[in-house]
Amino acid sequence: MQTSADDLQIQTQSQLGEINDALESGTFKQVRRMLNGLQPAEIAHLIESSPPPSRRVLWRLVDNEGEVLQELSDEVQAQFLRRMDAAEVAEVTEGLDTDDVADILQQLPDRVIREVLAAMSARDRLRVESVLSYDEETAGGMMNTDTITVRPRLTLDVVLRYLRRHDEIPASTDNLIVVNRKDQFVGLLPLSKLLTSPPTITVREIMVTDIDPIDADLADNEVANLFERNDWVSAPVVDKDGKLLGRITIDDVVDVIREDADHSLMSLAGLDEEEDTFAPVSLATPRRAIWLGINLITAIVAAAVIGTFQETIEKVVALAVLMPIVASMGGVAGNQTLTVVIRGIALGQIGRNNIGWLLSREFWISVINGLLMALAMGIMVALWLNDMNIALIIGAAMIINLLVAALAGTLIPITLKSLSIDPALAGGVVLTTVTDVVGFFAFLGLATYFYS
Amino acid sequence: MQTSADDLQIQTQSQLGEINDALESGTFKQVRRMLNGLQPAEIAHLIESSPPPSRRVLWRLVDNEGEVLQELSDEVQAQFLRRMDAAEVAEVTEGLDTDDVADILQQLPDRVIREVLAAMSARDRLRVESVLSYDEETAGGMMNTDTITVRPRLTLDVVLRYLRRHDEIPASTDNLIVVNRKDQFVGLLPLSKLLTSPPTITVREIMVTDIDPIDADLADNEVANLFERNDWVSAPVVDKDGKLLGRITIDDVVDVIREDADHSLMSLAGLDEEEDTFAPVSLATPRRAIWLGINLITAIVAAAVIGTFQETIEKVVALAVLMPIVASMGGVAGNQTLTVVIRGIALGQIGRNNIGWLLSREFWISVINGLLMALAMGIMVALWLNDMNIALIIGAAMIINLLVAALAGTLIPITLKSLSIDPALAGGVVLTTVTDVVGFFAFLGLATYFYS
User: Fold this and answer.
1) Which of A66, B183, B309, B329 is most buried (CB neighbours < 10 A)?
2) Does some domain include residue B165?
3) In the prediction, which pLDDT does A10 show?
4) What is the ipTM of this complex?
5) A391–chain B Cβ distance below 8 A for any pair
6) What is the CATH number of the domain that holds A64?
7) Is residue B265 part of a domain?
8) A386 at interface of B, judged by CB pairs closer than 8 A
9) Are B349 and A49 in contact (CB under 8 A)?
10) Is residue B294 a part of any domain in this protein?
């Protein structure tokens, strides 16, 4: 059976429908059979697509809990782990890849981590500890210890016989790793070369030596960049002395790319990229309240600006009607610039060498579009209110606010970045405050000057 | 040499600095040597990180133009292709993967595509035409025709000897594809199994048959889902009759994942995910003008609502000062809900089976946070203006607007999606219009009722 377009989306929803029906009528057996016929990642997707009450039931019906657990996002993982004791965690995670076990353990309090490690076999414990000793968001935290290594002096024939002694080769193995006697990285032996070369030559003769191994301290998004630029499937990880520690595979890199790309989107709304779509009210409410509180303060700042012009508004009440337009257009224009710059920073494109060009481009876009919008708005106001003065004032205020929006949209994220503040998280709030304050101030200020 | 943390970002900027200096002093030779020592993807990244004037110079200094061209984003590709004639395009794209050639050709007008195809060798032309016959955003448009196929009855020993006749195996080959006499897909022979099994057994005995091939019409984001859920490195693509057409590799899937994830971010600001960070003023200005124009209309709608309450504002001018706060808080709350729902839709998590739960959760979050914000704002207004009436009015209006924002943030993207309108592109505009209109209407309406 082939998978045809849009099948997957429909499939998820029809599976969810089936599960809901079954859970309501209490026929768990059928759901259990259906669930356990799916890939762990598919089960994880169904669990993440379910509200908390169904989640708990689904979880009890899953057989291979460890595999499913490691496919879940951090936040959902934590929800299930909270109800397990150390022995259960140790049991469930047995047989998982080292990096996945480490990811899961990092959701737990330190005391529980120690208990889980104590419940593991000595060999597994050592491996997991070596990954845990690195930050979760570095190459060391992403790596797996399941490497197959060979020595340079072996002939390919020996390597082939050595491989045949394995029952299986770890997933996503496209290279064997060549190491010296001190276990230091020397080069890579691609399986494709192993398969196309004469069996009598040695590893040294055909190994690839022009690929640098990854330092265990490299940040995960830089690892993703290296994989993307070089089209790697796997890559070796080494410590400061060049000693092989493990390898990173493309499936873990894909997760980093997905999270990195989601980060800007979610942060601009004050949310975390790991945010659970179906987080319960008790979790989601306080998080959102913080964001609303911050924005309440900035809105009050903008209102205070209006407050200083009360007398002018009393004289010409039409100003109150029109002032949100000026603020809103500045916000929209600034937000476009901000989004382009935030993505450019995330992609590593923007820095001191091109910021000048970018700033001047945004300036000229604003000049042209500012004039255009000012003209449109001016004509509309002149016809609507039959008042040329207000038409000129709103036109001028709009041009001023669009220019400020262009500068703010470019400079705010770059300044935040240089202060090591996440531009995606703080950028939107700061920008809107600037465009609101400048919008109200320019429009009402010009009006006050004119009408006083 | 190992690559350590933050090296890559700094490296890009220092390379750009070097290039700028060299271009200013006219020492192209050095830049050419530096450029051509880099990977094609690194050169593409430098070009995309440069403003248009430096881009043109860099492009002239690049030796392997085809490789670099296919790493560039669609929009930047198009900028260079516009200056080439059909013969040049055919020359530059020679030797590239079929899917990459097809991607590049799709940037060109139909007339030029025909000319380029005519300039190709018959074999290349047939291959590219087979990919071009599928939409760019389907499995058929992503696939490559460089498959290695074997028959089920062969012994592994024969397969190994057959492989040794190849100079090299295509990149990211983790499986050989098993086909029957009619070239129909039968199964996969993982290289890992080929390497660990005795040479005397046949392909049929160890081939994997429980993986479904991908239908050529499957949408590219569904292909990405399949790769992510199954941790594939490559997968076979077949036509309606099960005939093998080619295969998709993980490096092309990573591009789709990156673009898909960028899509929501950029669309919410009215931008395209392929938007060139350094697009010239002449390209960027008209695009942004359209978005500003749409938002100008919605801002005027909101202003018109205020306009109907002019008399009330004339009586109590403090209303004009406070009204943007109510509208703005509705916008912020609605935007959080909208972002969570848009991402949930993009990930395929949200549908008819869980929308009810989601709606009720958002409702309760809004009730709680609405009361909280209303209380904070009410107390502040009571103290600031010493006016309990306005304090009560603004509190009530804020609760109303936060509730409407929760409903709108959930229902707008789902409704747009069911109408086949991109929720990420249209959602933000519609939402802000709703929260502005409701915010002004609730606050000024309640005030009018109270003060008249």
Assistant:
1) B329
2) yes
3) 67
4) 0.89
5) no
6) 1.25.60.10
7) no
8) no
9) yes
10) yes
